[in-house]
Amino acid sequence: MRLMNFIFLCIAFLFLTGWGNWGPDVKIGLALDTVEDREPLVQKLKEAADDNRAELLVEDAKGDPAVQQSEVQGLIQQGIQVLVVVPCNPSKAAALVNAAHQAGIKVISLESLIPGSDLDYLIAFDNEKAGALQARVLIKKVPRGRYVLLGGNPMDTADLRKGQMKVLQPFIDRGDIQIVALKWDNAGKKPDGLDAILANKVDAVLASDDQTAGRAIRILGNKNLSQVAVAGLGDDLATCQRIASGAQLTTIYHPPQKLAEETAYLAAKLARKATEFDCQFVEVDNGSQKVKAVLLTPLAVDAQNLNQIQK
Q: What's the structural domain count of the chain?
């Protein structure tokens, strides 16, 4: 009787947890906005999927939302059990979620929340923590001085700015830090007046991405202000070169290994109809509902740990 009870409990555990890695092989569809610059993530996802006994089917939309819609339909026809999507245009990606749901398929969005949809899960890096990390590194280097804050569209970088200001505000209140300019770059171009702003005495620049950081550094170099501490967000080659040369103080890095492992684990569990997950979920609002999200902690990179970072 004890043996039968033990066997029953084991079977029940495997059923409730979706068999874990011991279950049947499953198919996961990955619909990418573009493979370009995402090769490390794709490779890590393939490895992590294999570890979870899952086949990963990859599609590359090359930045075209219409192509992505067609590719998602193709993945569904190939018998995927879970769809992982990096949307070309998040504001138009609700149709991708609807198409998957009509086929009884759960959807995980990577990096971007899909507004106005009944998205199942989001896995992304925590932008509020990223902003706080940027600000902490800058303050350690420049605890007093004149700061310029440069950002992208406020709708896209609100959490990043929130994290920055949480760290900066006590120093601002004490008068140690002065915010001499806070500029948004809504069109993806150099903010109007950036040359004039950086021509004044500036001690630190806090940028929402490394492209903006790079533009600021070029202007600062032209004005012989190369000693200004600059923080950005990204991991391209130009950024690494600027950090190695001392032109840029820090950047915030999103390790693809962390994103891949979390994504493959959750997708494989969902494919096996699991009801329990070893994930730290929070809820985020996409405008129509609360979405379960896994927000990963990014990593601050500077000259001290640059050589230790592996994509």
A: 2
